[in-house]
Amino acid sequence: MADVRTAPVDTISIVVPKGRRRRRGRRTNPLIYVALVAASVFAILPILWGLSTSFKSESATLSDSGWIPAQFTLENYRLVLFESKIPLYLGNTLMVAGLTVVTTILIGIFGAYAAARFRFKGKTTSLLLILMTSMIPGIAILVPLYFLAVQLGLYDTYAVMIIIYTAWQIPTVVWMLKGFFESIPDSIEEAGRVDGASHFRVMVQLIFPLAIPGIAASAVISFVYVWNDFLIAATMISTDDKRLVAVGLYNYLSQYGIVWGQLTAAVVISIIPIVIVFVLMERRIVAGLSAGATKG
Protein backbone atom coordinates (compact mmCIF):
# COMPACT_ATOMS: atom_id res chain seq x y z
CA MET A 1 0.00 0.00 0.00
CA ALA A 2 1.29 3.34 -0.92
CA ASP A 3 2.27 5.63 1.89
CA VAL A 4 -0.06 8.61 1.72
CA ARG A 5 1.16 11.67 3.55
CA THR A 6 -0.70 14.89 3.95
CA ALA A 7 1.17 18.08 3.35
CA PRO A 8 1.16 20.52 6.25
CA VAL A 9 -1.37 23.23 5.84
CA ASP A 10 -0.18 26.72 6.72
CA THR A 11 -2.40 28.48 9.16
CA ILE A 12 -3.50 31.92 8.13
CA SER A 13 -4.00 34.39 10.90
CA ILE A 14 -6.28 37.31 10.29
CA VAL A 15 -5.09 40.46 11.95
CA VAL A 16 -7.69 43.06 12.61
CA PRO A 17 -6.28 46.61 12.62
CA LYS A 18 -6.16 48.14 16.05
CA GLY A 19 -8.06 51.19 14.91
CA ARG A 20 -10.89 49.00 13.61
CA ARG A 21 -11.05 46.96 16.80
CA ARG A 22 -11.20 50.12 18.84
CA ARG A 23 -13.84 51.57 16.58
CA ARG A 24 -16.06 48.50 16.99
CA GLY A 25 -15.70 48.50 20.73
CA ARG A 26 -16.33 52.20 21.13
CA ARG A 27 -19.88 53.22 21.77
CA THR A 28 -21.14 56.74 22.14
CA ASN A 29 -23.30 57.37 25.15
CA PRO A 30 -26.79 58.42 23.97
CA LEU A 31 -26.91 60.93 26.82
CA ILE A 32 -24.21 62.92 25.02
CA TYR A 33 -26.50 63.41 22.02
CA VAL A 34 -29.40 64.33 24.29
CA ALA A 35 -27.25 66.92 26.07
CA LEU A 36 -25.99 68.36 22.77
CA VAL A 37 -29.51 68.66 21.37
CA ALA A 38 -30.77 70.27 24.57
CA ALA A 39 -27.88 72.76 24.60
CA SER A 40 -28.48 73.61 20.93
CA VAL A 41 -32.18 74.21 21.49
CA PHE A 42 -31.43 76.31 24.57
CA ALA A 43 -29.04 78.48 22.53
CA ILE A 44 -31.08 78.76 19.33
CA LEU A 45 -34.59 79.41 20.67
CA PRO A 46 -33.87 82.93 22.03
CA ILE A 47 -32.27 83.87 18.71
CA LEU A 48 -35.29 82.61 16.77
CA TRP A 49 -37.65 84.44 19.12
CA GLY A 50 -35.71 87.68 18.72
CA LEU A 51 -35.61 87.30 14.94
CA SER A 52 -39.35 86.68 14.84
CA THR A 53 -40.12 89.62 17.13
CA SER A 54 -37.97 91.99 15.07
CA PHE A 55 -40.37 91.56 12.13
CA LYS A 56 -43.49 92.32 14.18
CA SER A 57 -45.09 95.69 14.78
CA GLU A 58 -45.06 97.02 18.33
CA SER A 59 -48.73 96.19 18.85
CA ALA A 60 -48.20 92.69 17.45
CA THR A 61 -45.38 91.94 19.89
CA LEU A 62 -47.94 92.11 22.70
CA SER A 63 -50.83 90.35 20.96
CA ASP A 64 -49.16 87.96 18.49
CA SER A 65 -47.43 85.17 20.43
CA GLY A 66 -46.73 82.99 17.40
CA TRP A 67 -43.22 82.25 16.15
CA ILE A 68 -44.15 83.31 12.62
CA PRO A 69 -45.44 86.91 12.46
CA ALA A 70 -48.94 87.31 11.11
CA GLN A 71 -47.76 90.44 9.27
CA PHE A 72 -44.11 91.04 8.44
CA THR A 73 -42.79 94.57 8.77
CA LEU A 74 -39.36 96.15 8.31
CA GLU A 75 -40.28 99.28 10.26
CA ASN A 76 -38.21 98.23 13.27
CA TYR A 77 -35.09 97.86 11.13
CA ARG A 78 -35.72 101.21 9.46
CA LEU A 79 -35.97 102.94 12.83
CA VAL A 80 -32.82 101.26 14.14
CA LEU A 81 -30.71 101.91 11.05
CA PHE A 82 -31.80 105.47 10.28
CA GLU A 83 -33.18 106.97 13.49
CA SER A 84 -30.88 105.61 16.19
CA LYS A 85 -27.14 105.55 16.94
CA ILE A 86 -26.76 101.79 16.52
CA PRO A 87 -24.83 102.18 13.20
CA LEU A 88 -22.44 104.60 14.95
CA TYR A 89 -21.95 102.16 17.82
CA LEU A 90 -21.29 99.36 15.35
CA GLY A 91 -18.59 101.42 13.64
CA ASN A 92 -16.97 102.25 16.98
CA THR A 93 -16.95 98.60 18.00
CA LEU A 94 -15.51 97.46 14.67
CA MET A 95 -12.65 99.93 15.02
CA VAL A 96 -11.83 99.03 18.63
CA ALA A 97 -12.17 95.30 18.01
CA GLY A 98 -10.03 95.44 14.86
CA LEU A 99 -7.21 97.39 16.52
CA THR A 100 -7.36 95.11 19.56
CA VAL A 101 -7.04 92.02 17.38
CA VAL A 102 -4.04 93.46 15.53
CA THR A 103 -2.15 94.46 18.68
CA THR A 104 -3.04 91.24 20.50
CA ILE A 105 -1.85 89.01 17.66
CA LEU A 106 1.34 91.00 17.06
CA ILE A 107 2.34 90.73 20.72
CA GLY A 108 0.94 87.29 21.45
CA ILE A 109 2.42 85.55 18.42
CA PHE A 110 6.00 86.36 19.41
CA GLY A 111 5.36 85.44 23.03
CA ALA A 112 3.81 82.13 22.00
CA TYR A 113 6.70 81.34 19.66
CA ALA A 114 9.23 82.02 22.42
CA ALA A 115 7.27 79.84 24.84
CA ALA A 116 7.12 76.99 22.33
CA ARG A 117 10.67 77.04 20.97
CA PHE A 118 13.01 78.58 23.55
CA ARG A 119 14.17 77.03 26.80
CA PHE A 120 14.88 79.32 29.70
CA LYS A 121 14.83 79.19 33.46
CA GLY A 122 11.41 79.70 34.99
CA LYS A 123 9.58 79.08 31.72
CA THR A 124 6.81 76.95 33.21
CA THR A 125 6.30 79.34 36.11
CA SER A 126 6.13 82.32 33.76
CA LEU A 127 3.53 80.63 31.57
CA LEU A 128 1.41 79.72 34.57
CA LEU A 129 1.57 83.30 35.84
CA ILE A 130 0.51 84.55 32.41
CA LEU A 131 -2.41 82.15 32.43
CA MET A 132 -3.42 83.14 35.96
CA THR A 133 -3.78 86.79 34.96
CA SER A 134 -6.65 85.85 32.65
CA MET A 135 -8.46 84.17 35.55
CA ILE A 136 -8.84 87.41 37.52
CA PRO A 137 -12.44 88.68 37.26
CA GLY A 138 -12.60 91.97 35.41
CA ILE A 139 -14.83 93.54 38.02
CA ALA A 140 -12.19 92.85 40.69
CA ILE A 141 -9.74 95.30 39.10
CA LEU A 142 -12.24 97.63 37.49
CA VAL A 143 -11.91 100.41 40.08
CA PRO A 144 -8.06 100.49 39.95
CA LEU A 145 -8.22 100.51 36.16
CA TYR A 146 -10.65 103.42 36.24
CA PHE A 147 -8.46 105.57 38.51
CA LEU A 148 -5.34 104.66 36.52
CA ALA A 149 -7.03 105.70 33.27
CA VAL A 150 -8.08 109.02 34.82
CA GLN A 151 -4.59 109.74 36.16
CA LEU A 152 -2.97 108.94 32.80
CA GLY A 153 -5.46 111.10 30.92
CA LEU A 154 -6.78 108.12 28.97
CA TYR A 155 -10.30 108.08 30.36
CA ASP A 156 -13.04 108.38 27.74
CA THR A 157 -10.67 107.39 24.92
CA TYR A 158 -10.53 104.37 22.68
CA ALA A 159 -6.85 103.93 23.57
CA VAL A 160 -7.58 102.85 27.13
CA MET A 161 -10.06 100.20 25.97
CA ILE A 162 -7.65 98.84 23.36
CA ILE A 163 -4.88 98.62 25.97
CA ILE A 164 -7.11 96.83 28.49
CA TYR A 165 -8.59 94.45 25.92
CA THR A 166 -5.14 93.63 24.54
CA ALA A 167 -3.70 92.93 27.99
CA TRP A 168 -6.72 90.79 28.81
CA GLN A 169 -6.50 88.66 25.65
CA ILE A 170 -2.72 88.15 25.38
CA PRO A 171 -2.64 85.21 27.87
CA THR A 172 -5.30 83.36 25.89
CA VAL A 173 -3.53 84.00 22.58
CA VAL A 174 -0.14 82.95 23.96
CA TRP A 175 -1.45 79.65 25.27
CA MET A 176 -3.42 78.88 22.11
CA LEU A 177 -0.58 79.64 19.71
CA LYS A 178 1.99 77.94 21.94
CA GLY A 179 0.27 74.62 21.38
CA PHE A 180 0.02 75.31 17.67
CA PHE A 181 3.72 76.17 17.31
CA GLU A 182 4.66 73.02 19.22
CA SER A 183 2.78 70.95 16.64
CA ILE A 184 4.99 72.32 13.82
CA PRO A 185 8.06 70.07 13.26
CA ASP A 186 11.46 71.50 14.16
CA SER A 187 12.82 70.15 10.87
CA ILE A 188 11.14 73.01 9.01
CA GLU A 189 13.15 75.58 10.92
CA GLU A 190 16.33 73.55 10.57
CA ALA A 191 15.86 73.38 6.80
CA GLY A 192 15.46 77.14 6.67
CA ARG A 193 18.63 77.72 8.68
CA VAL A 194 20.57 75.33 6.44
CA ASP A 195 19.59 77.52 3.49
CA GLY A 196 21.14 80.50 5.28
CA ALA A 197 18.00 82.22 6.52
CA SER A 198 18.18 84.14 9.78
CA HIS A 199 16.16 83.08 12.79
CA PHE A 200 13.76 86.00 12.36
CA ARG A 201 13.30 85.27 8.67
CA VAL A 202 12.61 81.60 9.35
CA MET A 203 10.07 82.58 11.97
CA VAL A 204 8.25 85.13 9.79
CA GLN A 205 8.42 83.42 6.38
CA LEU A 206 8.15 79.74 7.33
CA ILE A 207 6.60 79.26 10.75
CA PHE A 208 4.03 82.04 10.92
CA PRO A 209 2.38 81.14 7.57
CA LEU A 210 1.95 77.57 8.83
CA ALA A 211 0.31 78.94 11.96
CA ILE A 212 -2.39 80.90 10.10
CA PRO A 213 -5.24 78.61 11.30
CA GLY A 214 -4.17 79.12 14.91
CA ILE A 215 -3.74 82.86 14.38
CA ALA A 216 -7.20 83.05 12.81
CA ALA A 217 -8.79 81.20 15.74
CA SER A 218 -7.05 83.49 18.23
CA ALA A 219 -8.10 86.57 16.29
CA VAL A 220 -11.75 85.50 16.22
CA ILE A 221 -11.78 84.79 19.95
CA SER A 222 -10.31 88.22 20.68
CA PHE A 223 -12.75 89.89 18.28
CA VAL A 224 -15.79 88.24 19.87
CA TYR A 225 -14.55 89.12 23.35
CA VAL A 226 -14.36 92.83 22.51
CA TRP A 227 -17.65 92.76 20.64
CA ASN A 228 -19.53 91.27 23.59
CA ASP A 229 -17.84 93.22 26.38
CA PHE A 230 -20.02 95.51 28.44
CA LEU A 231 -18.14 96.09 31.69
CA ILE A 232 -15.02 97.86 30.40
CA ALA A 233 -16.88 99.71 27.65
CA ALA A 234 -19.48 101.06 30.08
CA THR A 235 -16.88 102.14 32.63
CA MET A 236 -14.17 103.70 30.48
CA ILE A 237 -16.36 105.67 28.04
CA SER A 238 -18.72 108.47 29.05
CA THR A 239 -19.30 110.25 25.72
CA ASP A 240 -22.40 108.85 24.07
CA ASP A 241 -21.04 109.03 20.52
CA LYS A 242 -17.99 106.95 21.52
CA ARG A 243 -19.89 104.04 23.03
CA LEU A 244 -19.59 100.46 21.82
CA VAL A 245 -22.51 98.41 20.62
CA ALA A 246 -23.06 96.41 23.83
CA VAL A 247 -23.46 99.62 25.85
CA GLY A 248 -25.42 101.17 23.00
CA LEU A 249 -28.00 98.40 23.16
CA TYR A 250 -28.41 98.95 26.89
CA ASN A 251 -28.78 102.70 26.45
CA TYR A 252 -31.18 102.09 23.59
CA LEU A 253 -33.33 100.07 25.95
CA SER A 254 -33.15 102.74 28.65
CA GLN A 255 -33.85 105.61 26.26
CA TYR A 256 -36.88 104.19 24.50
CA GLY A 257 -38.19 101.86 27.20
CA ILE A 258 -38.85 98.23 26.38
CA VAL A 259 -39.81 98.57 22.75
CA TRP A 260 -39.35 94.92 21.90
CA GLY A 261 -39.58 95.20 18.15
CA GLN A 262 -36.85 97.83 17.83
CA LEU A 263 -34.71 96.24 20.54
CA THR A 264 -34.70 92.82 18.90
CA ALA A 265 -34.02 94.41 15.50
CA ALA A 266 -31.01 96.19 17.00
CA VAL A 267 -29.79 92.93 18.53
CA VAL A 268 -30.14 91.08 15.23
CA ILE A 269 -28.18 93.79 13.43
CA SER A 270 -25.47 93.73 16.12
CA ILE A 271 -24.81 90.00 15.75
CA ILE A 272 -24.54 90.05 11.95
CA PRO A 273 -20.79 90.95 11.99
CA ILE A 274 -20.09 88.03 14.35
CA VAL A 275 -21.99 85.63 12.10
CA ILE A 276 -20.10 86.88 9.04
CA VAL A 277 -16.75 86.41 10.81
CA PHE A 278 -17.59 82.84 11.81
CA VAL A 279 -18.88 81.91 8.35
CA LEU A 280 -15.78 83.26 6.61
CA MET A 281 -13.30 81.84 9.13
CA GLU A 282 -15.02 78.57 10.05
CA ARG A 283 -12.46 76.18 8.54
CA ARG A 284 -9.47 78.06 9.89
CA ILE A 285 -11.04 78.32 13.33
CA VAL A 286 -11.68 74.57 13.52
CA ALA A 287 -8.20 73.76 12.19
CA GLY A 288 -6.55 76.18 14.59
CA LEU A 289 -8.39 74.96 17.67
CA SER A 290 -7.84 71.29 16.76
CA ALA A 291 -4.13 71.68 16.05
CA GLY A 292 -3.56 73.75 19.16
CA ALA A 293 -5.36 71.22 21.33
CA THR A 294 -3.11 68.34 20.24
CA LYS A 295 -0.06 69.88 21.87
CA GLY A 296 -1.46 72.55 24.17
In summary, what is this structure?
By secondary structure, the protein is mostly helical. It has helices at residues 18-25, 30-54, 58-63, 75-82, 86-117, 123-133, 142-151, 158-182, 186-194, 199-210, 212-228, 231-236, 245-256, 260-295.
Q: What is the level-2 CATH architecture name of the largest domain?
A: Orthogonal Bundle
Shape: globular
Oligomer: single chain
| Number of domains as seen in the coordinates | 2
Q: Number of helix segments?
A: 14
Q: What's the β-strand tally?
A: 0
- The CATH superfamily of the largest domain is known as MetI-like
Strand content bin: under 5%
Query: For the residues shown, what is the average pLDDT?
Result: 82
Task: State the main characteristics.
296 residues; 73% helix; MetI-like fold; single chain; mainly alpha
Walk me through the structure.
There is one protein chain. The chain is mainly alpha-helical. It has helices at residues 18-25, 30-54, 58-63, 75-82, 86-117, 123-133, 142-151, 158-182, 186-194, 199-210, 212-228, 231-236, 245-256, 260-295. It folds into two domains: 28-73; 78-295, MetI-like fold. 73% of the residues lie in helices and 0% in strands.
Task: Note the topology.
Elements lengths: L17 H8 L4 H25 L3 H6 L11 H8 L3 H32 L5 H11 L8 H10 L6 H25 L3 H9 L4 H12 L1 H17 L2 H6 L8 H12 L3 H36 L1
Helix pairs in contact: 2-14, 4-14, 5-8, 5-11, 5-13, 6-8, 8-11, 8-14, 9-10, 11-14, 13-14
